[in-house]
Write the structure tokens for this entry.
Amino acid sequence: MAATTPLEHTVDFSAILKDQETFGTGRGTTAGDRLNSWFDTLMLQCGWELAPSLVLMLCACGGITLGGLVFVVQENLLTTAFGTLVGFVLPILAALFARARRQTLIMRQLSPMLEELARAAKTGRSVEQCLQLVAVDTPEPLGRELRLASRRLDMGVPLRDALRDLPQRTGVMTLNILATTLVVQQQTGGDLVTVLTRLSRTVRDRLLFLGRLRAATAASRATAILMIVLPPAILVFFTLRDPQYFQELMSSSWGRNATLTACVLEIVGVVWVLRILRASQRT
């Protein structure tokens, strides 16, 4: 068996790593800063590797394009405003879908990756060498994050700092357990193979439990999504069928008050339902 060459850290190069472009500070308590931080996190976890400013530009272009198309077809300011809003939100919805799909793939790759990491540790390699070896063999999207951590190790970044961003970049909290395990093992020693084997078994059992949980709550989640989508869909249907429908509704004080109350209750219900769904799907 060929001898393995230990990694030589070059600490001098670790200072040239560029920070991720962000809009939020992550430390503010205002609603605007929290919204900016949420958007930064979404752009980081969806895997697009696009600057947040570019995605905002895509949102603006989508809103202008769809709003202009609706205005050309109907020449109605209300439907134009609604079309502009939908066009602006579409890239964000696509990013949410991409993040959910990416997190699902990462969770499926975790158990095989941990098993391979345990096999690499059996050969007597260090934690850094095992991580570098597994990063090369792991496919996307988990492999990209592991290779990023491996490149940081090559540039002299300590293991704790190289793995610290894994949970934040992916949104998978199981990677926080992996990072903590590797850092503690490097600092205190111990049987790395046994720890990784047990962690792989735990991740596999957790995936089975989450699958059963999603299957058991599929009907409830579908009902919740239907409750969110149905009221706006009905409004869009009547507005497209009769462009004057919404204007006639808003022409009376009773219609304006009823519509405003319905919008407020809809927003409250959407936030409530989304928080419940997020709590049930958190991994």
User: Anything to note?
Assistant: Residues 77-122 form the longest helix (46 residues). The mean pLDDT is 82.
